[in-house]
Design a protein that fits this description.
By secondary structure, the protein is α+β, with helices and mostly antiparallel strands. The protein has helices at residues 3-18, 21-30, 45-51, 55-63, 78-84, 88-95, 133-141, 182-186, 224-228, 254-260, 269-272, 294-303, 385-397, 446-453, 469-478, and strands spanning 123-124, 146-151, 154-159, 171-173, 191-198, 213-219, 235-236, 309-311, 317-322, 333-334, 339-340, 344-352, 358-363, 375-378, 401-413, 416-426, 440-445. α1 (3-18) packs parallel to α3 (45-51). Residues 342-467 form the Nudix hydrolase domain.
Length: 484
């Protein structure tokens, strides 16, 4: 190779390594054979572009028909190089010749279900027992049963022990026995909710023993003095944020999620005064779909004035019952209509730039200083998840979205929502923020995101807390190990 050509190849490879698309395009127009030339290390322009994650450069080289099967001295193709350096979106682009499709930008879904905060399913709902009044009464009085106590829907917790090991949660749920809450169970205003029984794999097997059952109690009168004798350090956790994020993963799982999801439910005193609760109210079901909002009850009260309301046994459904004159020999007649209150579906999405190396994050005025997170919004009636993702991103940021891919979901009890987590690919990059929706939206490079994830002192923004599904969606996109 002549010195002139050697210098030309060196310059071409250097431009490819730096991602100078314009210069490489000009050089290839003058000498197309440069495309597959190798440097002293045996690397081609495509390999160098893959090493340094230059998405646009790779698209250019692929469009010109470069050799994707060429290997360096280590036997690596450009795709192998991308995989070695963790550039998964580049590897997917190199897996098939680029034809303008942007689906390869989307990260692959994990084969195992991710462990998301609030999502730990540790109880068996025992649906077959929820109408068995005898069994429920026996479990409520059993010395083996566990009770979680709430005062105005704030859970009773204990602080972390002084000698606790590093990494343990700051607070833990108080798990009480029947003897500790005996007095509360006798009070007429105490609402008892059957949560379920421990799953088999979580308990020590004892022949003849049934699984331990769990209940949640909610009182309107402050039971602090009563509880001081049991645990003088116990206190009621005030407010869902950030209080609920201080708990351990198990405590934040099904038990707490099911209980706290009813913050706007019939347990609220103002509404409860208007409702005649039947004696078996303590048998209410607290499935994830179960949130009874005040407006739902008030709506029923408006539609059925003068008719007492009650909660149907073991389900968060409302039934308006027509109570006839007590002097009438006729029995009560039940209306055929029922109202149920599922959790509100919310889409939360990480918008990925078409170059695969940037993501769109936004911040609301209510966010802590410096924090950016995924865009999110409620699904409207008649919308699919994909349609809601595209609409919300466009409304909040002005960015058009193409492919949408579901990743995972999270039950979020503040208020009762089902957060449906997605990744999606942007078809445009210009941002036009709707100030009524969010305060700011910006594109962040993968390097900037990783810097924020590891809490580098030079990070340009703060990551959402690990308990939020947004944390998982962003981290999964970076390709970082799940333990980081």
């Amino acid at each position: 190779m002549s010195d002139i050509k050697a210098d030309l190849v060196k310059e071409f490879l250097d431009c490819s390594s730096r991602g100078d698309v314009e210069k490489v395009c000009v050089m290839m127009s003058q000498s197309s054979e440069l495309m597959d030339e190798r440097g002293e290390t045996g690397w081609t322009a495509l390999m160098l572009a893959a090493r340094h994650r230059h998405y646009e450069m790779i698209k250019l080289l692929l469009s010109k028909g470069c050799d994707t099967t060429a290997t360096n001295r280590s036997g690596q193709t450009a795709r192998d190089v991308a995989l070695f350096w963790g550039h998964r979106h580049i590897a997917r682009l190199l897996s098939s010749s680029w034809d303008g499709d942007v689906h390869h930008v989307l990260p692959e879904r994990e084969t195992e279900e991710p462990d998301i905060y609030f999502n730990r399913d540790i109880l068996n709902r025992m649906s077959e027992k929820r109408t068995d009044s005898e069994w429920l009464a026996a479990q409520r009085s059993s010395a083996r049963s566990v009770f979680i106590l709430f005062h105005n829907l704030n859970p009773l917790v204990s602080p972390r022990a002084e000698d606790a090991s590093e990494g343990e949660p700051n607070v833990r749920l108080c798990k009480l026995r029947a003897s500790s809450v005996e007095e509360l169970l006798r009070q007429s205003d105490t609402v008892v909710i059957f949560l379920g029984s421990e799953k088999q794999e979580r308990r020590v097997e004892t022949e003849g023993d049934e699984p331990v059952t769990w209940f949640a109690l909610n009182t309107q009168d402050d039971p602090t003095r009563l509880m001081e004798a049991k645990d003088p350090n116990a206190f009621f956790l005030k407010g869902p944020m950030p209080g609920l994020l201080l708990l351990g993963d198990d405590d934040a799982g099904e038990i707490l999620c099911h209980s706290v999801c009813h913050r706007s439910s019939a347990l609220r005193p103002r509404v409860a005064q208007q409702i005649q609760l039947l004696p078996d109210v303590w048998k209410q079901n607290t499935s994830r779909r179960g949130r009874l909002q005040e407006d739902l009850f008030e709506s029923r009260l408006q539609k059925s004035p003068g008719r007492p309301q009650h909660l149907l046994s073991q389900s968060w459904q409302v039934n308006a019952r027509l109570v006839l004159d007590r002097r009438s020999p006729e029995h009560d007649l039940s209306l055929s209509s029922h109202l149920s209150a599922p959790a509100d579906p919310v889409v939360i999405m990480l918008v990925i730039h078409a170059d695969g190396n940037q993501c769109l994050l936004g911040r609301k005025k209510s966010f802590p200083s410096g924090m950016f997170s995924c865009l999110a919004g409620f699904i409207e009636a008649g919308e699919t998840v994909e349609a809601a993702v595209r609409r919300e991103v466009l409304e909040e940021s002005g960015v058009l979205v193409g492919p949408v891919q579901y990743q995972t979901c999270q039950a979020w009890p503040m208020p009762s929502c089902l957060m449906i987590g997605c990744h999606c690919v942007a078809l445009s990059s210009d941002i036009k923020v709707d100030q009524d929706e969010i305060e700011e939206a910006r594109w962040f490079t993968r390097e900037q995101v990783i810097s924020a994830l590891v809490k580098d002192k030079h990070a340009v923004f703060n990551f959402p807390p690990r308990q939020a599904i947004a944390h998982y969606l962003i981290k999964h996109w970076t390709g970082f190990n799940a333990n980081l």
